[in-house]
Structures are given as C-alpha cells and as structure tokens.
Amino acid sequence: MGSCVRASSAILLAWLALFHGYLVSVNGDFNYKEALTKSIIFLEAQRSGKLPPNNRLSWRGDSGLQDGNLANVDLVGGYYDAGDNVKYGLPMAFTVTTLSWSALFYESELKAAGELENVRAAVKWGTDYFLKASSRRKRLYVQVGDPVKDHECWIRPENMDTPRTVLMIDEHSPGTEIAAETSAAMAASSIVFRGFNHPYARRLLNKAKLLFEFARSHKGTYDGECPFYCSYSGYNDELLWAASWLYIATRKPMYLEYIQEESISASVAEFSWDLKYAGAQVLLSKLYFEGEKGLENFKKQADSFVCSVLPESPYHQINMSPGGLIHMRDGANTQYVTGAAFLFSVYGDLLAHYNRKVTCGNQQFDSSHLSAFAKKQMDYLLGDNPEGRSYMVGFGKNPPTQAHHRGSSVPKLLHNAVVSCPMTFVNWFSKNTPNPNELTGAIVGGPDRYDNFDDKRWDSSKLEPCTYINSLAIGALAKLATHRV
Hints:
The chain is mainly alpha-helical and about 475 residues long. The protein has 18 helices and 5 strands.
C-alpha cells in the first residue's frame, strides 16, 4: 500500500511538473509573459512627478513636483534614468523612441499579451514630459537635477533635498544629439498615438519636425551631461535616426532626401543610447524591402551589424562571455544584450516576411538564426547562464536582491523626514541586506565578461538598472511571449 501511494505520488508530481512547464512557459524554459509584464512595471518605478491612481508600486510616491521652478518652467514628470534621481534628456528620449518602436512593430504581440496599453502609457509618460521640455521655441530643457550633489546623497526621490538644477540647449548652446534623439522619440511616438488620439499625435509630430530642424541647423555636441552621458559617437547617428523616424511618420520626400543625400552612416557592432546607426539601418531596410531601392546601402549596413555580432559569422567582432552573453563594456552591459536581442528580433522578422537572408562572407543566416540568437541572449538574462540565476529583479531563480537603486534600497520615510546625506550611505547604501522595496522587473547591469556576478549594491556596474535596458527588452520579450522561436 505504501509503495502504491509513493508511486501515485510520483505520477502526480510528474504530471504537476509537466503542467507547471506549460503554465510558466510559452516557449522554452521561461514565462516570457511574466518577464514582459515585470519589465514594464520597472519603467513605472522610474516615473518622476505626480503618480497616477493606478500606480502599481506601493512604495513609490510623488516626487520632483517642483522640477523646473528654477528656470520658471514646468518640468514635472518624465523618468529617472537609473538608480539615481536625475532626469537626463538623452537616455530618456532613447527609452521613449525604442518603446515606441516596440509598440509599433510588436503591436499585435503586446496586445495578445495584454500589455499594449501599459506600453502606450509608458510612452506617454515620456512624451508628456517632452512636450513640456520643448514648450519654448528653439529651446529644449535637457536635464533636471545636479548629478554631483545627487550622487552625494543616497535617498529616495520622494525625500530628496538636493538641487534640481535645470540645463537646456538653444541656438547659442546647441546639443544636436539630444535635440535629434528627442525629435526621434516624438516622431516615433506620434505614430503610436495616431490611430486613437490624433490631436496628441499631431502635437508630437509638429514638435519632432521643429526639433529636427533645430538639431540640423545648430550643430554642436552637448557635453553638459558628461561624465554620465557623454556622446562619444557624435551626432550624425542621431540625425539619421531622427530623419528615418520622421520619414516613416510623414512620408515627406524632404526627409528621404536628407537620408540619401546628407546623412552620414557607418557600419557598427552595437545599438545603444549613444550609438543609433544599427537601429536606423534596420528601420531603413524595411523601406528598402518595400521598394525604396535608394536605401540599399543601409540594408548592407544592417547585414554588417548582424555579421559583426553573430558568433558563427566569419566577421564576428564583439566579445562573448564563456556562457554566451554579449559583453561590450563593464557598466550596464545588459543594454548591449537587450539592444542586440531587439534588433535581431525585428530584423529576423523582416527577413522572414520578405524572404531574405544575411550573407556574411561564405555563410548565410536566415531569420530563424537571428531569432534564435535573440532568444539565447534573453534566456541568459532570465536564468539560462553559468550562474544559474536571473538578472531580472523579482523574476525566476535567485534574482538580484540588492539593485543599485535609491528608491528600492531606502525604506519609505515620512514626507518631512530630516535626512543626513553622509549617513544615508551608512544606513542604506552599505548594508549587505536585500532592498526593502522590490524593484520588480529591473534588468540589472549583469555579470562581468567571465560570467561572474556578485549581488552587492555597491557594485554599480553589475547591479544598476537603466530604463533603456528594459525598453530594449520589451519588444524581444513580446515576441517570445507569443511566438515559438
């Protein structure tokens, strides 16, 4: 009798394990739908300003409600970029551009996963802020907060008392990268809202046009966000990126002429907040496949990106960890992972739709190869790696518990709490304990080039999350959540 019970129990456990696999995974070993949902929740944790009634994070509250006062302008809202309390215009705009791209290209997948409206809301949280930041003609407010003073105080944004310095660009102090990236964000997002909020979409597109002309006619690299967001790649990639989105949004010949006759492009091996060439090339390849034959060179450069990244390619350039993860640089390295995964997902789908392949020397790679590589990169982040752990907070096996993030690591305080900035590092930053507030969905910086990882808050290169890491992951996760790869 006892052996029968044990046998029955074993059979029952086997069936539970089998069905558990179906419940937690649409495709492969992970519940991509859960990862998608949580990746969007992280973006909500990064919101600044007056939070909406449907705020899903109980430990977050209103913050930065006086932002812009020092410049007599309303700059309430937007996103904090990472684990600090500064609002940087360049990475925020890139976050919104890439979110918009996902909302457009993977609209049906996001809808099927029940997340389309949440992604649209995430886009609008950014574009509402950009409309404020660009409210004055030939002027764009590009940063709120003093990063030096901010980094001297480990405090949640709801209780910060550091200077909310305002920086801007104008005709006398240009910043082509930021103006063009903000133009791209507003052009891309205008397409997102066009079908159901046409007046709002028109406002975004009009601002996008003005910002592009401003960026184009007042060229100059802006270094006001250095050393935190220095544009090492220059501004030609942002100009091409913005012109590409404006042509897609308007189909006006003037933008196509700029792309074909004036823009500068280059073959690259990464896609990030600083280097947009590969993204623009994939965008323009779709137009080439649709019949714009004058864009063939951009298709070749998109192929070159693939050839530079794929480990099997004879032209492979980038470093891969022993466990198979892209490793470009220490510090938010996972942005290069999710960036490649997103572009490989999109380009793979385009190749499949138009029955094309990528040729790298004597080898050819089809859409399934690109999609499989994108999946492998995302699977590594979700737990299929030598450490056997997830790099998304609150997801999977042994996820990070000490994200390098002020709001997550500092407990809720009274609104009028008096805080000593030096003591904040003693009381909260340096404590080797899990964060009191789970930063759900945050993809942290990840392991080093040898797959090593230590879950210690002070190791910012491995533990700090960023909005653009997640914005790049959302499209790839939407595809994995709804399609077998």
